Amino acid sequence: MAEIKEVTKKIEDKVKLKGKLVWDRYDGNQVEEAFEFAEGYKQFLNKAKTEREAVAEIMQSAQKAGFGAVSRKGKDKRIYRLNKDKCIGLAAVGKRPIEEGIRIIASHVDSPRLDLKQNPLYEELDMAMLRTHYYGGIKKYQWVAQPLALHGVVIKESGEKVMVRIGEEAEDLVFTICDLLPHLSRKAQEEKKLKDAIEAEKLTILAGHLPYPDQEAKERVKLRILELLHERYGIVEEDFLSAELELVPASKARDVGFDRAFVASYGQDDRVCAYTSLRAMEEVASPSYTTLALFLDKEETGSEGNTGAKSRFLEHFVADILRAAGKEPTDILIREILLTSKALCADVMAGIDPNYKDVHEPQNNAKMGYGVCLSKFTGAGGKYSTSDANAEFVAEIRELFNRKGIVWQMGELGKVDEGGGGTVAKYLALYGMDIIDCGTPLLSMHSPFEVASKGDIYETFRAYRFFLEGE
Q1: Domains of the chain
Q2: 44 vs 55, 81, 139, 168, 242, CA distance in Å?
């Protein structure tokens, strides 16, 4: 009987697919490494709450790691290119000819939030309020009755740029959206569907209450707020029209659990993949293939616009890389290089929540703590609106991760027909390159306080680093 069990175990070990919990694979030193890595990540999250702030932090970190701004003179081996302060690319020229293709990791640095409308300020019932328009996929009820910070930029008529960041320091003021008390909310909220309980036009920010001293003035509270803004920033009401001001949670990144095994923060979708790919790019000193990391904007709203994945920023940056490699860029050459390139779409995946297991198919969905997650496809329903990675490329990444000892898993976004979502993979796939989604599982995705496992974060970094190193 013992011999039969031993044979059975050998066969199971040989042929069955088994998930691997990160913490079971780590020794004490690796646990310490993962926790230390998370500390730098939390600092990044606290500093980079908007796409502009994320790009600024990435550029500053890359400069310290030896990346320089693109130069028409070429010959630089580690370069970056900035795109309108909301998108950035980093590249390192590899040892192999660039015609053999580039190794690309593409993440995004925008996150769901509330944007101020272009004419936001008004007064009602002796209170100053700010109108908002939500950005990306949010659950509106999650954004009420909590402290919010105001971040962004105001461009004055003169062209002067005024940076705004209010609500992040302990002594700072904050903003909030007031909710309705339960005593009066039965008809107004509780009898409605959850998605309708908070109306979009009622996501208005409480912004002030003190009136302007002149009792004959109109809209005295609004006037006092405009006076304060002029005193502090030198701006007038018309300057709101040429501003990008975003409201984000005022909370900091925190450890979660008695054992501190999780990181919780706003904006981990997708700054967890942005940070890990940044660190991977910085640590790969001498790559075999030319490497490129893209940090894109507008993913949460469909990748439209001149800073999103649908723009031609990638092609322009590849032209810069060619010049840095001592070659003259042409449209044909750029297309041929991208055709032979290989890429990871660095975006997060939904982890299975113990409270909501019924929306997941556990055999094929991501588990927290089981490492970085590969997703062969995203989309919805019958795989609509997705890039479906071919089996050959999946096998290539699988072999690399196994050989390098990466703890990884394969997952998709919930049960078939339960919902769905997309990434930038399909836009890069237009060039003909091999690409697959690869990122960190999250709980509470798109909420103001997303949760990730420190082990999964560290394995994401290790996966990106080995992918970029090449052979």
Answers
A1: 14-111+266-469 (3.40.630.10), 113-249 (2.30.250.10)
A2: 11, 20, 25, 14, 28
